[in-house]
Write a structure and sequence with these properties.
This protein is an all-beta fold. About 0% of the residues lie in helices and about 55% in strands. It has no helices and 27 strands. The strands form seven sheets. A nine-stranded antiparallel sheet has the order 1-2-3-4-5-6-7-8-9, with no helix packed on it. A four-stranded antiparallel sheet has the order 14-13-16-18, with no helix packed on it. The chain has a four-stranded antiparallel sheet with strand order 23-22-25-26, with no helix packed on it. A hairpin with a 3-residue loop joins strand 4 and strand 5. The chain starts with a strand and ends with a strand.
Amino acid sequence: MPTDYSFQAGWSRAFRTVSYSVNASRTRLSTGEFDNSVYMNVSVPLGRLARRASRAPQLSLSGSQTSSSGYGMQASVTGSAGERSQISYGVNGSYGESTPTNVGGNVSWRAPYVNLGASYSHGESSQNTSVTATGGLVVHRGGVTLASQLGDTIGIVKAKGAKGARLNSDNTTKVDGRGYVVTNNLMPYRMNEVNLDPKGSSLDVELENTRQQVAPRAGAVVAIEFGTKTGEAMLVRTLLEDGRPVPFGARVMDPTGNVVGIVGQGGQVFIRSETRADAVLRVEWGEHGSCALDAAISANADPAENLEIVKATCRSYQ
């Protein structure tokens, strides 16, 4: 009675950022005929990003030759773009002796509150186009919060005033204008760590902590709150009336006695205060050293992310 059997052999290797492989097989069918196949594949990063293969577009070329279907060739380029690789794309084409020629492409974007995608393909006898948009929304006591995706167990993260801060678990998800964001990757009955990256939020907002832990039940929607401090941010070089810098380690206090900054080297101090612009900040050092700093210096500060150093004279009390 005729039986099937086959032999296979393969060889693959990587040289720097280029990888390639060859595979061959021979199969004896129950009819007594033989089917021989050879497959080849090469993958190489493209462009100036080739030295950073993890971010470079990848070109893949493959070819095949079989006794049953003849020859075939495929080519594709895939990659990602954006600071956080939030955009993915790909183009592909194929041609074969017994299969129709086909070309296509696709692109997807992981936006902060929705996932968008589009694809197109064109063959000898067909043409397809598709556009997708997926996401969700959560209604809670603080209002309605959009999310690019929703899992079975989620958390509503609150960080008042921290618009633009990102969840470290998903680098594209940001805190919205009302101070909320949805984290959708919580594991039930386990301790989950939720982190907020303040980069991207206003310098006038400071997170009291950037890490929270929560152990939700399955299917739960849990509230996770990050404490914030708000106040106008200033980077000031404080000088005494004689031109000398204010002593290192001096405390800067608002009118209510709260410490809003500590003087560093060269009299520089980063201050975040909720006081009025016409208020006076008190600077103290040692047992008897003190002077008054006019909070109106904030009017000269650069509102951009990198504050310029503002010079201000700390005047003696009269």
